[in-house]
Amino acid sequence: MAYKIVASQCTGCSACEPECPNGAIYEKEGIFAIDPEKCTECIGFFDEPQCVSVCPVDNTCVIDKSRPRYKAKK
Ligand code: SF4
Ligand code: SF4
């Protein structure tokens, strides 16, 4: 899976963007989004997803259940 940002809750504060170790977070028209092809759920970098950790709005950075779980490349 990847994380996604619930667009209707994102305030556009940009706190998450520089924290992503994969550069997966980008701005689009004042709100932020996650490129699911780049998001590794922070696996291999941090114990906690950094976008979730820094986002001031609860339940805005959430798991995208429509995607398979991320598997680390060996
Ligand atoms: S979970 Fe980690 S890798 Fe995925 S978007 Fe958030 S900060 Fe980036
Ligand atoms: S930290 Fe949260 S509210 Fe701020 S830009 Fe990222 S998703 Fe939006």
UniProtKB/TrEMBL annotation:
Gene: frxA
GO molecular function: 4 iron, 4 sulfur cluster binding; metal ion binding
Keywords, ordered alphabetically: 4Fe-4S, Electron transport, Iron, Iron-sulfur, Metal-binding, Transport
Needed cofactors: [4Fe-4S] cluster
Record protein name field: Ferredoxin-like protein in nif region
Domain of life: Bacteria
Domain 4Fe-4S ferredoxin-type: 1-30
Upper taxonomic lineage: Bacteria, Pseudomonadati, Verrucomicrobiota, Methylacidiphilae, Methylacidiphilales
Signal peptide: none
